Each structure stands twice: as C-alpha cells, then as structure tokens.
TrEMBL record, chains A, B, C, D:
<dbReference type="InterPro" id="IPR027508">
    <property type="entry name" value="DHN_aldolase_MptD"/>
</dbReference>
<comment type="pathway">
    <text>Cofactor biosynthesis; tetrahydrofolate biosynthesis; 2-amino-4-hydroxy-6-hydroxymethyl-7,8-dihydropteridine diphosphate from 7,8-dihydroneopterin triphosphate: step 3/4.</text>
</comment>
<comment type="similarity">
    <text>Belongs to the archaeal dihydroneopterin aldolase family.</text>
</comment>
<comment type="subunit">
    <text>Homotetramer.</text>
</comment>
<dbReference type="GO" id="GO:0046656">
    <property type="term" value="P:folic acid biosynthetic process"/>
</dbReference>
<protein>
    <recommendedName>
        <fullName>Dihydroneopterin aldolase</fullName>
        <ecNumber>4.1.2.25</ecNumber>
    </recommendedName>
</protein>
<dbReference type="InterPro" id="IPR036839">
    <property type="entry name" value="MptD_sf"/>
</dbReference>
<dbReference type="GO" id="GO:0004150">
    <property type="term" value="F:dihydroneopterin aldolase activity"/>
</dbReference>
<dbReference type="Pfam" id="PF04038">
    <property type="entry name" value="DHNA"/>
</dbReference>
<dbReference type="InterPro" id="IPR007181">
    <property type="entry name" value="MtpD_C"/>
</dbReference>
<keyword id="KW-0289">Folate biosynthesis</keyword>
<dbReference type="GO" id="GO:0046654">
    <property type="term" value="P:tetrahydrofolate biosynthetic process"/>
</dbReference>
<feature type="binding site">
    <location>
        <position position="109"/>
    </location>
    <ligand>
        <name>substrate</name>
    </ligand>
</feature>
<feature type="binding site">
    <location>
        <position position="14"/>
    </location>
    <ligand>
        <name>substrate</name>
    </ligand>
</feature>
<feature type="domain" description="Dihydroneopterin aldolase MtpD C-terminal">
    <location>
        <begin position="6"/>
        <end position="111"/>
    </location>
</feature>
<comment type="function">
    <text>Catalyzes the conversion of 7,8-dihydroneopterin (H2Neo) to 6-hydroxymethyl-7,8-dihydropterin (6-HMD).</text>
</comment>
<keyword id="KW-0456">Lyase</keyword>
Length: 116, 116, 116, 116
C-alpha cells in the first residue's frame, strides 16, 4: 500500500527534477570550445536557482566538443556525451549527490549518495 | 554518512528526471486550443520512452490556453500553469506516482505516493 | 545605407524564425519508432500556430531513429539528422518555401523559393 | 513564379533562424536577478556560434525578473517579456539588424534594417 514519501525520497525526487531540467533545457544549445565556459556557468547558476539545489558543477569537455563540431556550420549542439555534471541537493536535512558521466558509451544520470 | 540508495530512492530520482525532462523540453511550445490534443499525446509518448516510465498523462487546459493567448500572435507558450500532469514510474518493484497541478497560484510538481 | 525591409525580406525573416523555433523547441525530445507519429503531428501543429505560417510538414525517419537508439535507455534524442521538414510561410502576398534535409552528412535549413 | 532567393533574402532567413533558435532554446530557463548576467553572456555566445551571426546582445531586465519571481520557488522562467535582444547578421555582403522588445504588451521580433 502507498506510503507517505520520506524526506530522503523527496530529496531524491528533487534531485531528479534538477537533472531532467538541466538536460532538457540546455540540450541542443550551439557550443564551440570558445563558448563552453559561459555555458557551464549559466547552466550551473540557472539550476541553482531551483529550490533545494545547493550546488551544480558543469564541465563541458572541450576536446569532445571539438570532435563533434560540424565544420561547415562551425559548432556542435550540446548533448549528454559532451559534458559531466555533479549536483548536491539538500532537502529537510537529507543531502543527495548526483552525477552524470559517460558509461558504456552513453551518458548516464546517477544517484551517487543519500546522506540523512 | 552516505548510504547506498535504496530502490525506492532510485525510483523517486527517476520520477524526478521524467518531470524535469517533460517540463523543460516542452515549456515554450506554441499552443492554441486547436493544438492541445496533439501536444498532449506527443508529450506523454515522448516521456514514456524513458526507462522505468510506465505511464504519463498530460492535460493541457483549453480554457487557460484561450485566456493566455497573445491575440496579435494568435497563440500562447506552454507553461506550467496551463497543464496538469500525472506520471507513474516503476523501478525494481517500487511504484512512484507524481502529479503537477496548480497550488497557491503556481504549478507544483509533487510526489504523491511511493509503493514498495 | 539601410533600407526599409521589403515584404519578401520580411517573409524570409518569418520563415527563419519558424525554422529556428521548431528546431530548438523540439531538439532533444525522447523519440522511438513508436512515437514518431505523435511527435511529427505535434511539431507541425505547434509551429503552424505562429503567424504567417501556412503549413508545416515534419517527417521523422523511423529507420534513422532505430539506428540512433541507445539500447540500454531504449530511445533516441531528436536531432536534425533524424528528420526532414518542409514549411510554407505567407507574408503580405509573398510565399516562402523552406526545407531541412541532410546534405554532406549534416542537416541544413534551406530557403527553397520566394514567390511574390 | 518562384525566384531564386537573393542574398538579402537569405540574410533575412538566417536572421530569423537565429532569433527562433535563441528564443526557443532558452525560454523556460530558471532565472533570478543573481543569474541574469551569466545567462545573458551564454545566450549571446551560443547564438554567435551559428554561421553568419556577427553579434548578439541580450539584456535580461532585472526589475522585470524580480517582479516575475514565484516567491515560493525563488525564481522566474525566462520568457520574451523579460529580455531585450539585438542581433547583427552578415551574409555575403548584406547586413541585417534585428531586435526583440516589448510592443503593446507583448514581445516582438523585428527586422530593423537590411543593408546591402
């Protein structure tokens, strides 16, 4: 039978929202090695605006962006394989750490740790 | 100290990812009362493609869309106040039910129930 | 020196807006062969809401979607290489036809014809 | 009967693509007065990556963002009424200037000048 969600479950739900938001807001953004820095900062600061989001770190990998560039157009489109992301969510005393990185050739969002 | 996430916590994380994805993928889409039906179906089927997502129901509210229309342009942009969403996530035997609806004048994503 | 834009130039500007809107609104959407139909319809109807946009046709290519699927996740993310798009814009008596399709391995948005 | 597009028409089409791209890529981004600066820079640098785009200036209006904030959530979602944008496109010797600002209560994208 259904249970009232615990604070730890709520914290994990909030962590997931932030990850889905970050990914689907910014996927497709035109990016080149010259613009990774401003995009990393904007993505982190945008998602840190959301409630319970203590810190976001975005690393867009210049070498993968360079490899992904459409040379006639001169840029790549941001996608999960071009970046690594870490986030810390705090919800009513529970801290959740999450991470997105490549695994088996695909980007994966992972729940790293839940600390009560 | 950090604990290994439980299946229920993983299920809540997955539920959050789906909600953030749906919202930030489709927010801003041009919508009118004539196009709410196709957008509801596409949003539900798109997010149901994601792993562990059993069902998604999207209700874009025609009367609120009609009120939000920019009459010179002839359409509104989809935002949280124009829709209600319900989702069911299944992860390793845990079912999570979530819902987005208006509360106190703002759209809120809620974890409704976690069933082991 | 600057000239006041002609109706044909305005029509081309409007055509470009529709193409950029369609692409960046929907790029990144989770898609599988089972959901291409609903997404095609929703994309076309969404952009047809915009002013001066007479018709939009979106063809998401099932075989390319099937090839692009991340088999652990079970879906692909919509991008330009998975679809072909045609649009007709009418502005004050000028008709503009545009098309996006692959050329030299990359998706290209093209102004096909301007008819006064 | 259809004519081959002129360079000025191509330039206007390119200008429209950039405007639609900027708007629909970034609409919905969580924003607060503390994060307008990084978002303005990232939006401009992202779109400047696109071909023929010489300069983009984005001004997100802190006072309008402050008024739009959902005080329980602590942020607003970026939309056209919260920003002003200017762009310059160069295509084969034609320069196009465009601008988005509020008019009659709604944000409007305008072709300001076409200079051969």
């Amino acid at each position: 039978m259904p249970d009232i969600p615990t604070d730890a479950q709520q914290a994990c739900f909030e962590a997931g929202i932030k990850f889905g938001s970050l990914y689907h807001q910014f996927a497709g953004t035109p990016v080149s090695p010259a613009s990774t820095g401003s995009l990393e900062t904007a993505m982190a600061e945008a998602i840190e605006n959301q409630p319970h989001c203590e810190s976001v770190s975005v690393d867009i990998l210049d070498d993968r962006v360079a490899d992904a560039i459409d040379h006639e157009e001169g840029y790549a489109e941001l996608t999960g394989s071009l970046m690594e992301v870490e986030m810390r969510i705090d919800y009513e005393g529970t801290t959740v750490r999450t991470r997105m990185a490549m695994a088996d050739g695909y980007p994966r969002m992972r729940l790293v740790a839940v600390e009560a």
